Every structure is written in structure tokens, then in C-alpha cells.
Amino acid sequence: MRQQRKQRFYEKYVKRLLDIVCALLALIVFSWLYLLIAILVRIKLGSPVLFKQPRPGLIDPNTGRERVFMMYKFRTMTDARDADGNLLPDEERLPKFGRMLRATSLDELPEAFNILKGDMSVVGPRPQLVRDMVFMSDEQRMRHTAKPGLTGLAQVNGRNAISWKEKINLDLKYIESISFVDDLKIVFLTFKKVFLRANITESNDEIDVNLDYGDSLLKEGKVTQNKYDALQAYARNIILTYANGSR
Length: 247
Fold this sequence. Notes:
Number of helices: 9
Shape: globular
Strand order of the largest sheet: 1-2
Radius of gyration: 18 Å
Structural class: mainly alpha
Distance between the termini: 27 Å
Strand content: 5-15%
Order of helices and strands: HHEEHHEHEHHHH
Helix content: 40-55%
Low-confidence stretches: 198-209
Mean pLDDT: 89
């Protein structure tokens, strides 16, 4: 069973309340924006409007394993296929409108529903893919002792412009001392980067240029092909088990 982390008063009793208030305010104040984006996505990219994907969440103290949840985003890619009916590469299915949604982080707005449900927090380590999680060490997976966030310390310190090691280390640094002041700073820096476009270092951030964590480790020779294949199969099994259990 993975070791648990002691929570301070703010994280244990206050953070969830603030998450609910912030998510509700966002949904109420920006309801017009949600509706507008939904209409534009439907017209420009098709149906469904929402993109849903299983992501690892908070570690269950009873099992020591991450709870998988369905994360919501606005759709950013088309279903364009080749002559054989296979989906084209991601970059070819990402039109200008989808790029804009990603570059401005407007595609992330539906995650307010994840926050209301309690799957996510406003601030925390960003929820990575299940196939990324299985390649993390037990120490690295301590990042999952905090709820995944809409934004986080790694997002305001480079996002896709930094390495996997740097991302995970920043997540681990964040969970060392979660506080209201630190969360407030991260929210402020997020607004500054997204809306003022200040200090943006990731020139091609709207296309996720990073390899999956497992692919990165394989490329660097840090995992063997056999271990890589086994962990990818394990990730698929986790998602399948979640899908069967959620029906």
C-alpha cells in the first residue's frame, strides 16, 4: 500500500470549500462562454462537444491505488481519417480553432464539473494519462496524494516546455506544503500566463509536443521494451476495468 501524506488544516478542511465556490462561480459567471464555445465546437469540430478521458486521481487510502475518474474538456480535434478509415495523426486533426482553444486553455473550462464532483481541485498536480502513471515510481506517485488540479506549480513554471522529471519534481514540491497563499499565487500566475500571455516560453504549446512518460523513458533507455509493453498493457487493463465498473 502506497504511503499516505499528512494533510494540513487548509488542505483538509478549507481547500474543498473554496474549490466548490470557485467552480460554481465560474459556471454561473461564464455560463454564456460555456454555451458559446459549445456551439462553436459543435459547428466547427462536430459531435460530441465534450472530450472525455479516464485519468488517475487521488490515491484511495484503503487500496493504496489511484482512483480513476473521467475528465472533461471541450473537444479540440476532428475525426478526420485516411483512405483506410484510420484516424489521422493528432497534429493533422487539430484545426486552427482547436489550437486556439488549447492555447487559451478554454478547452479546460468543463473541468469545473470535475471540481464540483470532487475529482479535481482548482490547484494541484495536473492529471496525467493512466499510461503515464504506470511508469511512475512509488515516490513519484506520491503526487497523487493530492487531488489533481485545473492548474498547478508545473503549469506556471513551463508546462510543456519542461521535462517529465522537472514536472514531477514540481508536483512533489507542491505537495510538501500545500497552503492558501501558495494556491493563490499559482492561480494569479495562471491568469497572468493565460490571459495576459506573459512569460510564455512554450512556443508550440497548443500541440502537446511532449512524449508520453513511458515513451520518454523508452527513448532514453531507462526501461526495456519488454517492461514498456507490459506496463502499457497494465494501463489498458486499468482503463478497461474502470470502464466496466462505471457502466
